[in-house]
Amino acid sequence: MDITTKQIEIFIKQFYVKVNQDALLSPIFNEVAEVSWDEHIPKLIKFWSSILLKTGEYQGNAYRKHVMLAKQVQIENLHFQRWLALFEEQARLHFEKNIAEDVISKASNIANSLKIGMLKESL
Questions:
Q1: Does residue 75 contact residue 117 with C-beta atoms inside 8 Å?
Q2: Which one of 3, 56, 62, 108 counts the least CB within 10 Å of its CB?
Q3: How far is residue 5 from each of residues 34, 41, 57, measured CA to CA in Å?
Q4: Would the pTM of this model clear 0.70, i.e. be above it?
């Protein structure tokens, strides 16, 4: 079974509901970054569609934005671990096993790349 854009949309919306309820992550998104979720969720869907479906829809620079965020707030490895744990939990609930493993692997690679830039920049 292949992933559809609709599956990605539902997954991302459900995942970020959890992020918004998380005591560790929510303040970073809502108080520091002051994310406008109505604007951000469609960008996240395009980002993950580009990653998972190779659509090329996302034209932003997510890496730069995250590195800039690390200059506003102390980002630690714990933040990445929590984000990945929530992501993995939601992926396993949402996708069949093989797809979930692939989605989690890609998220882990992206998180590791962001971690290098964000933790280095925040030191």
A1: no
A2: 56
A3: 26, 13, 11
A4: yes
